[in-house]
Write a structure and sequence with these properties.
globular; alpha+beta; eight-stranded mixed sheet; 24% strand; single chain; 8 helices
Length: 249
């Protein structure tokens, strides 16, 4: 079991653009959809034009959750699918015998959003980009705790997803959604103290994948809600979330 404190949080999704909206959402959650994009006014227009839908959501949430004076904080960016629409577009170009744009290819790799954030923020610290299937949010927390154990005073965690291209929808094993959320994580101090444990699942993983929203979004709903615990079973593993202490978040 590992423990961590969420000292602050931020999130953005179409139709959910401030903390009050997210706190209301947590009481009756739903999967956000749409093509709306955050303004991302913090980023100069020349740089902002290079950032697409999923990148804007992730960078906006990260920016709102970061502290201006906190330079060099390790970053963990996590997404199950990343910018899959851009990857599909590139594959379609190849299928038509067209040359791929080097810039578009560089922006399609899984760490591109984290790299863009580090560039626009002037961050020179450690950053990681990961994907872990249906347990992406949990794996990201484990990674962040490892960085805290290595001596980082805090870690900025960013989890994000974009709508899947139509060609992939029949293979989806959880609801589709567009969202990004960010947590500032510490070992202790003021905030919401959580614990996370895992064990072999007692039932088939497919039973744990049904729901009204993706598992990564359900993790945010757990943080913002009042439930003392949450169980998430996926790929043969049972993840047990517990709320240890509720303070200010």
């Amino acid at each position: 079991m590992i423990g961590v404190t969420v000292s602050d949080w931020a999130a953005w999704a179409p139709g959910l653009e401030d903390r009050a909206a997210w706190l209301d959402w947590a009481k009756a959650p739903w999967s956000p959809h749409g093509d709306a994009r955050p303004a991302l006014a913090e980023v100069p227009a020349m740089q902002r034009r290079r950032i697409d839908h999923v990148g804007r959501m992730a960078i906006q949430a990260a920016w709102w959750c970061s502290q201006a004076e906190a330079q060099g904080v390790p970053l963990v960016f996590a997404s199950r699918h990343g910018d899959v629409q851009r990857s599909c577009d590139l594959l379609e170009q190849l299928a038509r015998g067209e040359a791929m744009s080097p810039m578009q290819f560089s922006l399609s790799v899984h760490n591109a959003v984290a790299a863009l954030y580090s560039i626009v923020r002037g961050e020179r610290g450690n950053y990681l980009a990961l994907a872990a299937g249906g347990a992406t949010a949990e794996a990201a927390v484990v990674e962040a705790v490892g960085l805290l154990d290595d001596g980082a005073p805090e870690v900025l965690l960013v989890v994000y997803e974009a709508p899947m291209p139509a060609v992939h929808l029949e293979f989806m094993d959880e609801p589709d959604a567009a969202f990004a959320w960010s947590w500032r994580l510490r070992r202790d101090g003021e905030g919401v103290a959580l614990s996370l444990a895992w064990q072999d699942a007692a039932f088939d993983a497919s039973e744990g994948r049904a729901g009204t929203m993706p598992a990564a979004l359900a993790a945010l709903q757990f943080l913002l809600g009042a439930a003392p615990a949450r169980v998430h079973c996926v790929d043969g593993v049972q993840w047990d979330w517990h709320r240890r202490v509720c303070a200010t978040a």
